[in-house]
Structures are given as C-alpha cells and as structure tokens.
Specification:
Elements lengths: L1 H15 L12 E5 L6 H8 L3 E3 L11 E3 L5 E2 L6
Parallel strand pairs: 1-2
Antiparallel strand pairs: 1-3, 3-4
Bound molecules: zinc ion (ZN).
Length: 80
C-alpha cells in the first residue's frame, strides 16, 4: 500500500504543479502561439487572452509563456 500511495501522490503533484511568473509569481499566464493561426478555437482563445499571438518568427530563444499581470515572457519552447 505504501508504494501505491507514493506513486499516486507523485502523479498528483505533477498534475497540480502550476507554472508561475518568475517576476511576480502570478499564475495568470498565456501560452505564446507562433505561426499562422487559422483555427477558430485558437482565435477565440487569443481574443479571450488565453493565448498570446506573437507572429511567425520563432527561434530557440523564443519564450513559451507570457505573464498577463506584468508582461514578463519566459520559458522555452520544447521542440521535441
Ligand atoms: Zn508576472
């Protein structure tokens, strides 16, 4: 039982761990979307602020997240 509780707790911890802004510790973050957007669902999310549209230019240094409180951009896009 002990090992079961351990693995259960571990996966729960991974799922509930939320990204936070390194600047202001806010968890009100937008995922930055790169490239051309023609998905109506994505367009809706951009309008509502859930996704940040940031043009088509993306590099290895492009941030993945944008803080909606202070505007800080951070994180790395995972290309794998
Ligand atoms: Zn912030």
């Amino acid at each position: 039982m002990r090992s079961l509780e351990y693995s259960k707790g571990k996966s729960l911890d991974d799922k509930t761990r939320k990204k936070r802004c390194p600047e202001c510790d806010s968890n009100d973050l937008s995922l930055i979307h790169y490239g051309y957007i023609n998905d109506p669902d994505a367009m809706q999310q951009i309008e509502s602020g859930e996704i940040e549209a940031d043009g088509c230019c993306v590099s290895d240094e492009s941030p993945k997240w944008k803080c909606r409180d202070c505007g800080e951009q951070f994180g790395k896009i995972n290309w794998s």
